[in-house]
Amino acid sequence: MSELANLTPVRVYYEDTDFSGRVYHASYVRFLERGRTEWLRQMGLRHDTLAQANTAFAVKRLQIDFRAPAFIDDALEVETGIAGLGGAALRFRQRILRGEHVLVVAEAQVVTISNNRPVRPPRELVGRLRGLGVDHTINAVAERRKPKS
Prior knowledge:
Layout: E1 5-11, H1 25-42, H2 47-52, E2 56-66, E3 75-86, E4 89-98, E5 101-114, E6 117-118, H3 123-131, H4 137-145
Antiparallel strand pairs: 1-3, 2-5, 3-4, 4-5, 5-6
């Protein structure tokens, strides 16, 4: 696994499941958030430090593909990697796995905010990502999606 990716272990508890013992769909959103938080820690950033600087991350877009269920007491791993950055946004690709089995595939676009306005991500994070070879792919993709006038 590269420095751009993180594996976060997650255990499925009773509170994560529905009446059938399967993981409730909204629980996967929490698991994915934990993965992104641990990825930030790996990059040297913590939410409490960001909060002191009046900076936070807000999810703008989250696309989830549910492929197979997880069950109570399963040991899962959330794989999180950066897929691009641009302007105020970071794009993540994530998977939730049980062993070698892929249960969930997700992509999240997260926006850096301060005083409820989009701002560029912290310089130390952008510098580290550039040093690891991450380019500015989000803006290029957004430009291609714009309808022509």
